[in-house]
Amino acid sequence: MNFDYTEEQTLLENMVTSFVRDDYDWDTRCSIVKTEEGWKEENWKKFAELGLLGVPFDEDQGGLGGEATDIMIVMEQFGKGLVVEPYMPSIILAGGLISKLGSADQKNSIIPEIISGDRRYVFAYAEPQSRFDLFDVKCSATLDGDNYIINGFKSVVFGAGMATHLIVSTRTEGDQRSKSGITLFLVDIKSDGITLQNYPTIDEYRASEVVIENLTVSKENILGELGNSYEAIEEQVDLSTIAICSEAVGILQVLKDSTNDYCKNRKQFGQSISANQAIQHRLVDMMIEYEQAKSILYMAITADLSNSDERRKAASAAKARIGKAIKFVGENAIQLHGGMGVVDEYMISHFFKRATMIGILFGNVDFHMKRYTDLTQSNIQSINEDDGINLS
Amino acid sequence: MDTAFSSEDLKFQSEVREFISSNYPKELKDSIGTKRKTGKELSRDDLMSWHKILGKHNGWSAPGWPKQYGGAEFSPTQKYIFEQECARAECQYIMPFGVNMVGPVIYTFGNDEQKAKHLPGILSGDVFWCQGYSEPGSGSDLASLKTSAVKEGDHYVVNGQKTWTTLAQHADWIFCLVRTNPDAEKPQQGISFLLIDMKTPGITVRPIKLMDGSHEVNETWFDNVKVPVENLIGQENMGWTYAKFLLAHERSGIAGVARSKKALERIKQIASAEMSYGEPLIQDPAFKSKIANAELELSSLEYTELRTLAKDSAGKGPGPESSLLKIKGTDIQQMVTELAMEAVGYYANPHLGTTLSNEYVGPDYATNLSGSYFNFRKASIYGGSNEIQRNIIAKMVLGL
């Protein structure tokens, strides 16, 4: 039993760490988020050169065949740099759907293009009424000869403004909240019938509202089986949830370490504020929350993610527990930075904002607590009267 | 990353499981089970007979001791597995005072005569030890202790009072921190480590009753107690160093993950039998969400412990991070004892097994659950209060 990285994983970590250090220092990051586009396409090319865009894909598609640990390594370091390029939305989530559901032809034509950085897919799933329910899909696709006509509205699609293509979840059958009857389509983002309204998010990433009006798509662009994609969507969102938990752990480390340093350096009443026990204990509790967050992430990474129940439990356990850590560590980081915590100019508030938005992404603490609870706590168990109760 | 155990470790696991199932006596299980159910105190035999069985089997009563002193010399992973299996089978846990506390001090700092005299009895479980550290005026600030030992010829004369002496009512020996130099520059420098036979004239043990009515701890008084000088461990006035060494050893298994897991399983069974809003309590959204929350905390802590274990196996620890295991481990124990009490509703009230009530009421599983809740408030106080643990992390880990 060990929590060590393999030699390849150590190399991967070093590579991402040096990218963040050399090409993504704080000033660079600040200038990127202020541009019109909100990201730097050159960085995407650099990711392609470094092989990062191929991490989760199969080796026979030209990828690295990486596993949950490899994705964690990349995301954790990206978290430390607050890297805004749409790696998770495009590579982990949309890329994962194509790997999972694509036909041989689709995979052969699309995945090499993703790995080379020439195409970026993002997944448009959320709708104004759906909140975190992936099966709540109103956006409709109706058969018309050899084509489908799609109509609907997709909300807060991360990275859509940077994408070349979309994967759109649509309803081809059943009620709005039915798990069956959901079909995915691959579409060029420049198609007639797609209108994007791009905007910055509070944490300086970019997202879009996507309006789809009478978009005509050929049957051939269906990804996966007609009306039968819910399970795959849930699976890829679970894996992406674990990926953003990794990003969060990277961010929490920065929040905790920076706050520690700040409290040592900040002097009041003639001494470091970290000389006060009230502050020391708060810093200790932040460190404990960070360690517990990292531990539950390791639990999720090493769980049997190929078993769907284990995967669901692992993703929700990690997201719920890390969501609590985000709130505790984030809010206390701001509090202990005092006035410096609440200004835009200093970096700590940016880490807090990103962590908080990760807390919402793919379902907040309440959502995942309920999901975890429903998965684990409903069984009636018989009581063995012979046992003494040993709570000590 | 690989959280699977190696095939040797898995083989070891089944060996331990097999040993427990064929050697843990049914009478002991029944005796302890009945006493817990009826809120009765465990006897010395209840506490020690499993230790004695393990003591006859390859040093398994002392998992961490080197083989040369008769211990099992388990690897960190084997120790972890051993603790897990004992907890899973709900074995009576091994009293820590001899095996985990004074034993390692004796074989590390003691002389050959002391090793020969004391280690076999600790190993076999024939000698029951207790710990004389805290005093009425010295809790968290242990170095301020006042119990004095004055050298007179070939013995020390000990005077003073120790308190919170756990299970001193059963003890044959006590290891004590005593002040041998009241004039030392720093209080830590005037302390020595003495082994004292509890039968020595001048020692009085008085019970302290805890709020659940249990008798676990005592006051121990020393009135001109004559202790032979050969009972001094190491050098005079170096006791603080040995005490700090001991604290590092005391930590193993402190998180209590396996036992808390078992307790949560038990609570789920109770909550399946109890009714709320006309349905089993386990289906009550508020209650099951609390159980789920405790499970998440426990699952995080389990992996924190495994990470510490991996570090330890690689020869890099455990360091002061073990304070984290103590803080979170006791948090969770308290969370769990509270949930158990909460699960039984009104039947948290009856205080049974006392001189005032010999009749039993309510479901068997409810007996003494409130007692456990009240009793376990101790967990965040003993072994260095959780505030002191935070001070240790602040200083040793965060460099504040």
What can you tell me about this protein's structure?
The complex is a heterodimer of chains A (392) and B (400). Chain A is an alpha+beta fold and 392 residues long. Chain A folds into three domains: 7-119, Butyryl-Coa Dehydrogenase, subunit A, domain 1; 122-228, Butyryl-CoA Dehydrogenase, subunit A, domain 2, CATH 2.40.110; 231-376, Up-down Bundle (Butyryl-CoA Dehydrogenase, subunit A, domain 3), CATH 1.20.140. Chain A has twelve helices and ten strands. The longest helix of chain A is centred in the middle third of the chain and has 36 residues, at 230-265. The relative contact order of chain A is 0.10. Mean pLDDT of chain A is 96; it is low at 388-392. Chain B contains twelve helices and nine strands. Chain B has a four-stranded antiparallel beta sheet, with no helix packed on it. In chain B, 44% of the residues are buried. Classes of the chains: A alpha+beta (392), B alpha+beta (400). At the A-B interface, helix 7, helix 8, helix 9 and helix 12 of A face helix 2, helix 8, helix 9, helix 10 and helix 11 of B.
